[in-house]
């Protein structure tokens, strides 16, 4: 029986969407505007790659992924908060994301800021609340919360975003570019994979392997994001070349398209070697890693 | 020996400031700008009332407050994040806070948004990391994290802030005003007190009493904040009457100054009754509650 990746992605996306639907307050709750704004961005057609990675990593060690589902949703909430804030006029000033007007375009800047803020809070709150009921050892839940915090905060995503803004329209070298990509996008992707292992009770050596794997696919993912900004198709939901227009620090701008794609593929090839220790169990994560560099949107 | 509240507040503030100093990355860390912005707002002369309440509540049950210190600092980080974001041009558009230019005035809007975002992340990350080392049962740490999340997110502070913005320059009734105050400020103050109890291993009845106490002093605190906006002294660090100018929903605007002060005092009188069960141990919290309505800045 061959593994149908598209079918797998679709069915996992449905499970995650259902869980998010359940974890977020209804759009009719008072004050309605904030709940509508939160839901607008969470359900705007994301591929759910990060939560899918988390669940796949958990399944390396455990047959039933359900105890990890709230954590997968929390990860997606953190990702969504970061997108809402990144799009703000003071940041990247983007009017469209995934083919739809961005949060501040629909709800105004104040509500967009608060919707991002709230999604971050709810992510941590959800992990603590559901973690207590999940049957997962509470020490492991705390370690997962810490790991997500580390990847999203001053040692991760926020610092990447700071440097991304700092380098816009300015000179940068490969080291600075790598810092941006590893922090802005890479850290959260690495955390996705590592948290799956932490929650499943993986040993330290397995966690190190997952971390090395995640580190490389995280960087490869952002390099491909840069590449797709130049040669993606309409499914990206935003105008091509927008990084170029904003004079963003990107791999294609520094190394050219071919070298960038080559670099992403090399990273994925390196990454999957770290999965060898998991044997057949590692094949799903391996397919997901390859998908990251072969996707067209 | 009589209890010197001013001395107590000062010595607790020093302990909390020292701990915050230790928990935040140094200002020289790369990328420097974000660490400078975070520190600028955290060390801008806050009174540390929320963390002081948390520690006092913990001390109802335990002789040494140190295990609760990281949680007290996390609370202050959440409070600081909310101030940075509240001051943004898209929100309250304030140029000064505590007599100093606000974060976006000094660092620009993008960095101010990111500094607020990062402080929120670091707060949760800190509780998880230090909670694991604190010797406090991990279930209680998780419950404390959940409690803080609940008070800061969609069921608390964020929704209060949404309605605060919504009602600016518009008509409002007492019920709506109470919603704003209970959520915007009250929820985090109530959580301060409750989290102290949770971490100390308080029983459910004690937690209910702390929650009722916190609920009332939280509302009283915000009513007095409204009052002080009209009659405070220069130690407030911002121009008097700024709520009035912005047509904010406030107690004095709806009920007048005298009735508002009366309401705050009544709430504190009700609140301290819930401390009776703790006997002499409750006296510090009782003094703190009275201080909230007697302060002049």
Descriptive account of the structure:
The structure is a homodimer of 297-residue chains. The first copy, chain A, has helices at residues 5-23, 32-42, 49-58, 69-87, 103-107, 109-133, 138-152, 157-167, 174-200, 204-231, 242-245, 251-255, 257-273, 283-294, and strands at residues 96-97, 100-101. Chain A is mostly helical. The mean pLDDT of chain A is 95. The longest helix of chain A has 28 residues, at 204-231. Chain A is globular. The first copy, chain A, is built from 14 helices and two strands. A two-stranded antiparallel ribbon of chain A has the order 1-2. Chain A has one domain (5-294): Farnesyl Diphosphate Synthase (Orthogonal Bundle). The interface between A and B is large, with 55 and 55 residues.
Give the number of DSSP strands of chain A.
2
Give start-end ranges of low-pLDDT stretches of chain A. Answer: none
Assembly category:
homodimer
Structural class by secondary-structure content of chain A = mainly alpha
First and last CA, distance of chain A: 28 Å
Beta-strand level of the residues of chain A, as a percent range?
under 5%
Helix-strand pattern of chain A, N to C? HHHHEEHHHHHHHHHH
Largest interface: A-B, 55 and 55 residues
Name of the CATH superfamily of chain A: Farnesyl Diphosphate Synthase
CATH architecture of chain A: Orthogonal Bundle
The gyration radius over C-alpha positions of chain A equals: 18 Å
* Proportion of helical residues of chain A: over 70%
Order of strands side by side in the largest beta sheet of chain A?
Answer: 1-2
Tally the helices of chain A: 14
CATH class of chain A: Mainly Alpha
- Counted up, domains of chain A total 1
| Largest sheet: number of strands, sense, barrel closure of chain A | 2 strands, antiparallel
- Label the overall shape of chain A: globular
Give the CATH topology of chain A.
Farnesyl Diphosphate Synthase
């Amino acid at each position: 029986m061959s593994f149908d990746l598209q079918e797998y992605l679709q069915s996992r996306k449905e499970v995650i969407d259902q869980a998010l639907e359940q974890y977020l307050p209804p759009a009719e709750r008072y004050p309605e505007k904030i709940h509508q704004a939160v839901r607008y961005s969470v359900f705007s057609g994301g591929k759910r790659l990060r939560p899918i990675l988390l669940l796949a990593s958990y399944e390396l060690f455990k047959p039933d992924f359900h105890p990890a589902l709230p954590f997968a949703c929390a990860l997606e909430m953190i990702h969504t908060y970061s997108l809402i804030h990144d799009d703000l006029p003071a940041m990247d000033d983007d009017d469209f994301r995934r083919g739809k007007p961005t949060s501040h375009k629909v709800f105004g800047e104040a509500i967009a800021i608060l919707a991002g803020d709230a999604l971050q809070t709810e992510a941590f709150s959800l992990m603590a609340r559901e973690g207590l009921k999940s049957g997962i050892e509470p020490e492991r839940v705390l370690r997962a919360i810490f790991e997500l915090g580390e990847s999203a905060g001053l040692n991760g995503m926020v610092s990447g975003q700071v440097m991304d803004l700092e380098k816009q329209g300015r000179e940068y070298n490969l080291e600075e570019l790598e810092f941006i990509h590893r922090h802005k996008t890479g850290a959260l992707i690495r955390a996705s994979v590592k948290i799956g292992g932490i929650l499943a009770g993986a040993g330290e050596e397995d966690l190190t392997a997952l971390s090395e794997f995640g580190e490389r696919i995280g960087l490869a993912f952002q390099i491909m994001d840069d590449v797709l900004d130049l040669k993606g198709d309409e499914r990206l939901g935003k105008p091509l070349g927008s990084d170029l227009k904003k004079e963003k620090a990107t791999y294609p701008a520094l190394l050219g398209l071919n070298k960038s794609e080559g670099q992403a593929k090399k990273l994925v090839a390196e990454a999957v070697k770290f999965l060898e220790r998991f044997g057949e169990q590692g094949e799903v994560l391996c397919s997901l890693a390859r998908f990251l560099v072969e996707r067209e949107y």
